[in-house]
Amino acid sequence: NDGKNEVITGYLPIPVKIVYKVTKAVCKINIEAKGEISHGTGFFLNYSNSKKYLMTCYHVINPTLENDKIELQIHNQKKMPLKFHNRFTRYMDQPIDIAIIEIKETDDIYNEVEYLNYDKNFNNGGYLIYKDADVFSIEHPGGEDASCASGTIKDISNIEFEHDIPTEKGSSGCPIILLNNNINLIGVIGI
Fold first, then answer.
1. Model-level pTM?
2. What is the pLDDT of residue 64?
């Protein structure tokens, strides 16, 4: 913090209130598979004010879908096992690389996290993705505590865009947020 209520990320300053809200919506994913521990990042999403989900990259949880242990660790260090049974799940491999897992009201962390909003009328709400737009992420690089990184959109195609936000192993699954300096218009534009 530079004393002006902004977090300096190396590229552009981001208001603390936005970083705080997004940080509460991001979790570290700890995966134990075949005696090895790996990490990824996920985030909680409210879809059109009706359903709540955990979003991450498919490759983060793919090796562990059957027999291994996945644990979510949220902003206050509380941990919860990730359960797949009796809940809506969708997995999309390459080129999309997304996993969507329903969060239920009975889950221990249901009320302890912030949910970023995704409205199916997203583009009509003013979240337009364009080249050179400022974007940022909250991620868990290397399985460490959450950190904030920023950059810009470099290229856009039909189903994806390229950005220059610095990432490391463990950052996979973090939300890409369009920066507009308005906490009420935090736009998740990618993963």
1. 0.85
2. 52
